[in-house]
């Protein structure tokens, strides 16, 4: 009797589990989808990278500072006004102090000034989110410094208030607050083309506030040869006051001013041996019509 046997199912080989594609060259394993998917992903990432580069390029160009070359007759306030510098001549001087030097009134033709050099400084000092511990450590120190700044503000306000008003309440003021006269009116000497001093010199370091002595209208404000940067103001009584050798000007021709209003900062521009304010009172707007400036101030109640 023949022995009973069992039929075994033929095992399927590894090749049969794949996908076969019939072709003239034989059976080929069809796996193109993997390559296509990778290429499609690469195409999608390329526009994103291009877009990021396009956005970053304008930002880099925008942050690049401009350079200004000083010409004859320039002064910091004039340049700051023409170039629309945010922060005025003080910001321009701060950014270019290594070029200008210690005297902001002494700038020479040919100097290269950087405009907006530190405009992005606030962005650079912003704490990074990736370093919370460093930002947290710095916070207490900043918090302690705040009260000191707050307490100094009222003092500054009081100083400004006293600078704009005289104790007489007449609306007239000395051109420089609490300053001594170093060269008197009509002092004789070969230093002056007329043979004598046509005004009174007030002691004033560069950057000292110079004020209009009384209400009036600015006749001229700008460069005036040996006087350097000067301002001339006509007052309501028809007299004129002149302020010379200024390092910067803060008024312009045609502007109305009040007594005690700051019109510029002292310096040593023009024909000057050092920082001071040359002050004149005249019967007309030009040189040669001078009168005693101290006597004029006293006639308006200013104590000097």
List its traits.
Membrane-bound Lytic Murein Transglycosylase D, Chain A; alpha+beta; ten-stranded antiparallel beta sheet; about 300 residues
Total of DSSP H or I helical runs spanning 4+ residues: 7
CATH architecture of one domain: Distorted Sandwich
Query: What is the overall shape?
Result: globular
What structural class is derived from the secondary structure elements?
A: alpha+beta
Summarize the main sheet. Answer: 10 strands, antiparallel
Following the backbone from N to C, one meets helices and strands in this order, namely: EEHEHHHEHHEEEEEEEEEEH
Notes on the structure:
It is a single chain. Helix content is 31%, strand content 22%. The chain is built from seven helices and 14 strands. It has 304 residues and is an alpha+beta fold. It is globular. Strands 5, 6, 7, 8, 9, 10, 11, 12, 13 and 14 form a ten-stranded antiparallel sheet that branches. Among the domains are: 66-119, Membrane-bound Lytic Murein Transglycosylase D, Chain A (Roll); 181-299, Glucose Permease (Domain IIA) (Distorted Sandwich), CATH 2.70.70.10.
């Amino acid at each position: 009797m023949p022995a009973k046997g069992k039929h075994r199912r033929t095992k399927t080989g590894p090749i049969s589990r794949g996908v076969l594609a019939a072709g003239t060259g034989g059976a080929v394993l069809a796996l193109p989808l993997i390559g296509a998917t990778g290429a499609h992903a690469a195409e999608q990432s390329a526009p994103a990278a291009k877009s990021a580069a396009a956005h970053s390029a304008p930002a880099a160009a925008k942050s690049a500072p401009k350079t200004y070359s000083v010409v004859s007759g320039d002064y910091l306030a004039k340049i700051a006004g023409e170039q629309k510098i945010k922060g005025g001549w003080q910001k321009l001087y701060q950014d270019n102090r290594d070029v200008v030097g210690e005297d902001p009134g002494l700038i020479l033709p040919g100097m290269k000034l950087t405009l907006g050099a530190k405009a992005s400084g606030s962005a650079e000092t912003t704490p990074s989110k990736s370093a919370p511990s460093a930002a947290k450590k710095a916070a207490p120190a900043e918090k302690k410094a705040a009260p000191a700044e707050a307490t100094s503000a009222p003092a500054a306000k009081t100083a400004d208030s006293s600078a704009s008003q005289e104790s007489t309440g007449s609306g007239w003021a000395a051109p420089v607050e609490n300053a001594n006269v170093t060269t008197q009116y009509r002092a004789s000497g070969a230093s002056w083309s007329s043979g004598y001093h046509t005004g009174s010199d007030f002691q004033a370091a560069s950057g000292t506030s110079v004020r209009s002595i009384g209400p009036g209208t600015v006749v001229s404000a700008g460069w005036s040869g040996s006087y350097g940067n000067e301002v001339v103001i006509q007052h309501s009584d028809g007299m004129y006051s002149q302020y010379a050798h200024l390092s910067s000007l803060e008024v312009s021709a045609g502007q109305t001013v009040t007594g005690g209003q700051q019109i510029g900062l002292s310096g040593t521009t023009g024909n000057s041996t050092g920082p001071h304010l040359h002050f004149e009172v005249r019967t007309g707007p030009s040189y040669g019509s001078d009168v005693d400036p101290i006597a004029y101030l006293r006639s308006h109640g200013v104590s000097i």
